[in-house]
Amino acid sequence: MQIITVAPIVRGALQGALTYFSKDPIAVGMVVVVPVRTREVPAIVLLSEDASGSKSALKSSDFAIRKITRTKPRRIWSPAFLKSAEETANFSAQKLGETLLALTPKTILDAHLEGMLDEPKIVETGGYFEVLAIQGSTEIRLEAYQRLVRESFVRHESVFVCVPTEDDVVHVSHVLGRGIENYTFALHSSTAKKLVLETWKNALADEHAILVVGTAKYIGLPRYFKTIVLDEEHSHAWKTFSRPHIDLRMFVENYARASGSTLIIGAPILRAETHERIARGNISEFDRIATRAREETKTVLIDPRREEKSIRENTGKRNMVLVSKDLRKLLEDASERGERVLLLSARKGLAPVTTCGDCGALVRCPECDTPLVIHKKETKNSDTQVFICHGCGFTRVPENNVHETCPNCGGWKLQGVGVGIDLIDNEIAALSPKTKRFILDGDRAKTRAQAKKIVAQFEKSESSILIATPMAIPLLTAVENTAIISIDSLFAIPDIRMSERIFALILLLREKTTGTLLIQTRADDTIIFKQALSGKLFQFAENELATRKAFSYPPYGTIIKITLRGKRAEVLSEMERLKVFLVNYAPIVLGTMAREPKNIFRMHMILKLAKNNWPNSDLLAKLRALPMQFTVEVNPNNLI
Hints:
alpha/beta, Rossmann fold, 29 strands, 25% strand, nucleotide-binding
């Protein structure tokens, strides 16, 4: 009899490893089906040993070891894939089974378990691993990748281009696959199951060198790729949004190293972490790392406060200028020329928050305490206003559709603060009532297909205006004129990479705007806007690294965030226990306790580790031992 230790390949496993017995020995790395409570789940074998040496321990055990129910083991992943997944799980403080599940398409996993796919062949590559980088516009990068693919095909070498989103897969495969359509394979999460299996099998069977463009889940295709390209490296879509919290960029690099492939990292602006590695000589140039982005777009930076000051001095009125003189001129000129205009704002609704003019209190959701957002609700007879909570979905119509009292002092002097796209729509409707307008945000487009439909209608219409949140930008092909009405509120989000995100957003708008790009900002520090508009990539990277170094943020340190959700008293007591449990690592418990729907409270603990002090085997064991209600994130985007 054999004692088999396995890692369940399932979300929410109570333990990272479970023990079973089997009649026959099973090789490490094989996948079996084991009973967990009342169901059967796949699990990967971590250890297999003869039970004869553990008889005394088994007899004295206070629990019974169950038998593996389906003993026909299967090999699903190559050794290189498993090694990469284990390294990624260790760095991310996640369980191996959950990590494997996050890195494997369900269609492929199920097909292997059902015997519809052959076991992967062990490919001896002997390739040389190195990391190269390219920084430049999308056009420049794709031209470089086209040359790479053609040269690789001449040498009979296959290439995998890994991108973060489905839209990237569609666009990149279309551009790079021109002329080699028969040897180009595209894979993403929206691909139908039948087509995924067909594409997977065809890619394995093709004896010719191939190009695969896909998201990170599909890089496990068991075929050797001499070169792996990781494009759009700056995108926040590389980090998973639910458990297990892992950075897919790290897995791709680990996989390239384990399989002996060359890794090429590309982006319009490379991350600060990548620039630091370039400076240390750990990453070389694949193509020229541009220090400046060159675009023909005319750029304008406007501070509406100057116009507001002029109005106040001349009339004595205190009016907020939403559409500046320069923007009105841009709209008028675009209308005369029959051009389209994109108006961008970071927030939905009329105003992101409502405050009391008497006591300063915020109007908050009674269910989860999140600030309520004023939205415009269109009806057949008239437009009404409603309060909507973006946290739990709570909706309330103000009294008589107009009046609302302060929850703190009972006063009537409530006012909306900030700029939402509904407020912009009202202003544009008053200025240009005959101009066709389209609005795109998360409320108007619940699905990607709905969002694409709105963008397609806008791109077909002349002299039209699209008022949108940043979700519209990846879907746009090109637009003649763009104006950022307000994104200042993004700086208030406690995201350590927010500057990179805003900088990359402006760079992308420069690429997609053929005429004029105008930015309105009330920020006192406009360096990031000026650098983005002038395309000063190197200066921005230097400034960002200096800031990271001052606060010991990555790459100069490692941040671990532990989040607990539950009832208020339980959260407080458990956090105190956790503080004692991790006392050797100087934990910082954040003082604020955010309330979620149904009286569920959320609290965070932060661990800041010195550079090169992670992964730490002792701390890793402690983090993996935490109950399921704790969520662990390594180098999170935000700290609260």
